[in-house]
């Protein structure tokens, strides 16, 4: 099936098998391996991408469903040598250890901060409820989000 | 996943025609349930028909003061819709807690109501139970801590997985079902079916060539409603027990009540004893207590889920308190 999809601002036109997952299309066909795959059942959030600007599980979506849509991945957040403010805050606040979960968190939180520029601590926790991290205990991730929106250290 | 063909029709009649195009055909909403089942070889369709662009996704006022919701409306839209928040708050609340923000952005109303059970035996290919055409229920004498405490004398002990089904039954919603040869309307309460040996492989009356196209809510009238979900450590998994109450009020007292329980039976479960004891009472703390007690009368727990009686009682109590405007 011919599919046209825009990924991080770049158009791609491919002939794809319907059963190809969006996550596998990104990682294997486009070599955008920043999108990670953990549970493949919609639970862990590692595969989160922006689908028409909204966070979505790329493991629970077919690539053919993205036909005519826009997909954003972690590779699209930074320009060379300049992290996005959220990415920079993740680095400063030690919001990652192994980093496996990080792309998913960044995509979820990028959309969240766009819609909620000045979130309270509970809103932050609610926003990242769909992403699992086995290393950090979340505290530093919450702190990174506070920093990214200009709040001083709690 | 087995290979399949994919079609993406742009209107309802093309989608309905595609359902009759031969072989095993399944509608695809947001895919948050179906794709996981395809990966696990629990279903092996020849063709998927995407219905997201084919079905209506708006909520529109009906002539008689109700609301008609298109099955392609996504869960986050239900949770944020001003009319739903104002007039059917329990439905908005149920939608707002489903899964995670990512799932609420993709998941549709139609998919939520038609998602398949979460029973862990059902979800494993190797366990060929009654629901999959086998000849036993592994939960009956197995790991049944998340299974039913009501309506569990049939062949399957599942709890119905849909969070939206419970408030919809409580508000007296109807579903519009359509196929290429016609349409019908079914009360939400009659849509979901208790398992018998003849019906155990399905959870509702929908035929394979039909779509659920709209949810139709009646005018709420002078009601107060409340919704409460008990979750494991506030986690994003399905609730362990929950309740919606809709109380038709006459001044400070309750004229009639609907009390519907979720995650405790193979269907959204009407707690008729609780409805009876609420009738004619003042809406106060005592009403919440007696409703909670009455709601669990008649529960028949399995070996590992007697704890559900306690949390169901609490869910009903707190849903009544929420209807009374108390923060719980
Ligand atoms: C981690 C996780 C947590 C979750 N937690 C919850 C929860 O707390 N509560 C809850 O209710 N759900 C929960 N879900 C289930 C979630 O998949 C559904 O809530 C979601 O709404 C499904 O919608 P969908 O459009 O993605 O369905 P799909 O996967 O597209 O479809 C589901 C089923 O319905 C059928 N179908 C789809 N549309 C129609 C239609 N219009 N007419 C007839 N049949 C149709 C499909 O063929 C399929 O069999 C959770 C899921 C995950 C992965
Ligand atoms: S409860 Fe139902 S789905 Fe689960 S093992 Fe028993 S028959 Fe199968
Ligand atoms: S890999 Fe998609 S949610 Fe875990
Ligand atoms: S940093 Fe290792 S899983 Fe989150």
Summarize, please.
Chain A has 154 residues and is of the alpha+beta class. Chain A has helices at 22-29, 85-92, 102-115, 121-127, 139-148, and strands spanning 2-7, 10-15, 48-51, 54-57, 70-72. Chain B has 328 residues and is an alpha+beta fold.
CATH superfamily of the domain at 223-323 in chain B: CO dehydrogenase flavoprotein, C-terminal domain
Largest sheet of chain B: 5 strands, antiparallel
Shape field of chain B? globular
Query: Per CATH, which architecture of the largest domain in chain A?
Result: Roll
In round numbers, the mean pLDDT of chain B is 96
Number of domains of chain A: 2
Total beta strands of chain B? 12
The low-confidence runs of chain B, each spanning 5 or more residues with pLDDT under 50, are: none
Judging by the overall fold, what is the CATH architecture of the domain at 223-323 in chain B? Answer: 2-Layer Sandwich
Q: Given the C-alpha coordinates, what overall shape of chain A results? A: globular
Bound chemical compounds: flavin-adenine dinucleotide, iron/sulfur cluster, FE2/S2 (inorganic) cluster
Rg over CA atoms of chain A? 15 Å
Low-confidence stretches of chain A: none
Number of helices of chain B: 12
Pair with the most extensive interface? A-B, 28 and 25 residues
CATH top level of the largest domain in chain A is Alpha Beta
Q: Under the CATH scheme, which class of the domain at 223-323 in chain B?
A: Alpha Beta
Under CATH, the homologous superfamily of the largest domain in chain A reads Beta-grasp domain
Query: What is the percent of helical residues of chain B?
Result: 25-40%
The description of the largest β-sheet of chain A is: 5 strands, mixed
């Amino acid at each position: 099936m011919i599919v046209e999809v825009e990924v991080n601002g770049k158009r791609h036109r491919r002939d794809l098998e319907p059963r190809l997952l969006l996550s596998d299309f990104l990682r294997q066909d486009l070599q955008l391996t920043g999108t990670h795959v953990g549970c493949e059942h919609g639970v862990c959030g590692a595969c989160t991408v922006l689908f028409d600007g909204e966070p979505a599980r790329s493991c629970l979506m077919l690539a053919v469903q993205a036909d005519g849509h826009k997909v954003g991945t972690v590779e699209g957040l930074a320009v060379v040598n300049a992290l996005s403010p959220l990415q920079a805050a993740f680095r400063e606040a030690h919001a990652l250890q192994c980093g496996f979960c990080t792309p998913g968190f960044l995509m979820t939180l990028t959309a969240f901060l766009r819609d909620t520029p000045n979130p309270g601590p509970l809103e932050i926790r609610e926003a990242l409820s769909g992403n699992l991290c086995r290393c950090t205990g979340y505290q530093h991730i919450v702190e990174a989000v506070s920093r990214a929106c200009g709040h001083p250290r709690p | 996943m087995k290979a399949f063909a994919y079609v993406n029709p742009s209107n309802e009649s093309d989608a309905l025609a595609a359902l009759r195009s031969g072989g095993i055909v399944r509608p695809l909403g947001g895919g948050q349930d179906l794709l996981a089942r395809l990966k696990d070889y629990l279903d092996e369709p020849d063709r998927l028909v995407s219905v997201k662009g084919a079905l209506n996704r708006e909520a529109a006022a009906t002539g008689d003061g109700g609301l008609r919701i298109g099955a392609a409306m996504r869960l986050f839209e239900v949770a944020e819709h001003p009319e739903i928040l104002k007039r059917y708050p329990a439905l908005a609340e149920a939608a707002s807690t489903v899964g995670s923000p990512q799932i609420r952005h993709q998941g549709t109303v139609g998919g939520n109501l038609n998602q398949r059970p979460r029973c862990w035996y059902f979800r494993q290919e190797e366990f060929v139970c009654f629901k999959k055409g086998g000849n036993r229920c592994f939960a009956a004498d197995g790991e049944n801590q998340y299974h039913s405490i009501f309506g569990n004398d049939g062949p399957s002990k599942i709890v119905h997985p849909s969070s939206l089904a419970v408030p919809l039954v409580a508000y007296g919603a109807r579903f519009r079902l359509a196929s290429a040869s016609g349409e019908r309307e079914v009360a939400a309460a009659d849509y979901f079916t208790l398992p018998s040996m003849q019906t155990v492989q399905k959870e509702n009356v929908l035929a394979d060539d039909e779509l659920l196209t709209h949810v139709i809510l009646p005018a709420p009238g002078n009601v107060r409603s409340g919704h409460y979900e008990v979750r494991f450590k506030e986690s994003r998994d399905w609730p362990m027990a929950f309740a919606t109450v809709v109380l038709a009020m006459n001044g400070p007292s309750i004229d009639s009540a609907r009390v519907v329980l979720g995650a405790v039976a193979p269907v959204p479960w009407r707690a008729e004893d609780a409805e009876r004891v609420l009738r004619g009472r003042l809406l106060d703390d005592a009403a919440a207590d007696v409703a909670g007690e009455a709601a669990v009368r008649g529960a028949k727990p399995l070996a590992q889920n007697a704890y559900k009686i306690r949390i169901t009682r609490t869910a009903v109590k707190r849903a009544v308190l929420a209807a009374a405007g108390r923060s719980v």
